[in-house]
Design goal:
Structural class: alpha/beta
Largest sheet: 9 strands, mixed
CATH topology: Spore Coat Polysaccharide Biosynthesis Protein SpsA, Chain A
Shape: globular
Number of domains: 1
Helix content: 25-40%
Number of strands: 13
Number of helices: 11
CATH architecture: Alpha-Beta Complex
Order of helices and strands: EEEHEHHHEHHEEHEEEEHHEEHH
Strand content: 25-35%
Radius of gyration: 19 Å
CATH superfamily: Spore Coat Polysaccharide Biosynthesis Protein SpsA, Chain A
Strand order of the largest sheet: 5-4-1-6-11-8-12-10-9
CATH class: Alpha Beta
Bound molecules: 1-O-phosphono-alpha-D-glucopyranose
Length: 289
């Protein structure tokens, strides 16, 4: 049985929902309290046993490469000033036994296209995908929960959340034939259907475990919704020959690609943040709305 050791982070999107903040900086570098979204995603992967972080980046995303690289000037400055706690924070962004690989997506042609750019790095291994703007706060990392299901079922796994049906056109929506607790045996999947056409209120959120042959299905796709190569369409063809499970994970998900989701995440993470928690809670109690 092949273990899940590789994760793909598609981070080439333009982040238009967050302009002007994302005009010159990647949306994945927006911080929640003091850590960029992409670092939360990388930590979730590493804490789930992943050894290779594969970033699919676009032209304006070079600060993501810098963030995961060493920073010799900064580090020697922190050493000189004996700021050891800060030095540790900077040095532990990528653990020593984990590799970072960066691939360029030369046109923003959709999520399926972004994933396809990693074909030769993934080779024949099953792999995970994390969309960093879906931030998930949980006791056990969401990806770890999904890997446990993958290990048990030996099939593709998609993270699911019950959504408001009127928002169906923002998600991949699944239909299922049976369920066992919070694991759904998926029958069909459609990218961003109208609320009327949606077959359920179960939306896919940004975590996937996929077999390597997903690349064969992506390579046969024509542009779909929004004229993009959609991962959802490849998953839909994969369903013809494979079981795919949907998993309603334990945890809270914040859509940090939207302003309201980002603000909610900031509040929730600040409440739990060692350094600011006490003062922030005090502030929240006295705030006038
Ligand atoms: C993508 C996927 C969609 C999924 C969503 C989760 O859409 O295409 O199926 O439900 O992520 O966040 P996007 O939000 O990139 O438009």
């Amino acid at each position: 049985m092949k273990k899940i050791k590789k994760v793909v982070f598609p981070v080439a999107g333009l982040g238009t929902r967050f302009l002007p903040a994302t005009k010159a900086s990647p949306k994945e570098m927006l911080p929640i309290v003091d850590k960029p979204l992409i670092q939360y995603a990388a930590e979730e992967a590493v804490n789930s046993g992943i050894k290779q972080l594969i970033f699919v980046i676009g032209r304006t995303k070079n600060t993501i490469i810098d963030h995961f690289d060493s920073a010799p000037e900064l580090e020697s400055e922190l050493i000189n000033k004996k700021k050891t706690a800060l030095l540790k924070i900077v040095q532990k962004i990528v653990p020593k036994n984990v590799d970072c690989i960066f691939v360029r997506q030369n046109s923003p042609a959709g999520l399926g296209h972004a994933i396809y750019c990693t074909k030769n790095i993934i080779n024949n291994d099953p792999f995970a995908v994390i969309l960093a703007d879906d931030l998930i706060k949980s006791q056990t990392p969401c990806l770890k929960q999904m890997i446990d299901i993958y290990n048990d079922k030996q099939s593709a796994v998609l993270a699911l959340e019950k959504i408001n049906k009127k928002d169906a056109d923002k998600y991949g929506i699944v239909e299922f034939q049976s369920k066992e607790k919070n694991i759904y045996d998926i029958k069909s999947i459609i990218e961003k259907p109208s609320p009327k056409a949606a077959k359920s209120n179960l939306g896919v959120v940004g975590r996937y475990i996929l077999p390597a042959n997903i690349f064969d299905y992506i390579s046969k796709l024509k542009p779909g919704t929004s004229n993009e190569i959609q991962l959802t369409d490849a998953i839909s063809s994969l369903l013809n020959n494979h079981n795919i499970y949907g998993y309603e994970f334990d945890g809270a998900r914040f859509d940090c690609g939207s302003k309201i989701g980002y603000l909610k995440a900031t509040v929730e993470y600040a409440i739990d943040h060692k350094e600011v928690s006490k003062d922030f809670k005090k502030y929240l109690k006295n705030i006038k709305i």
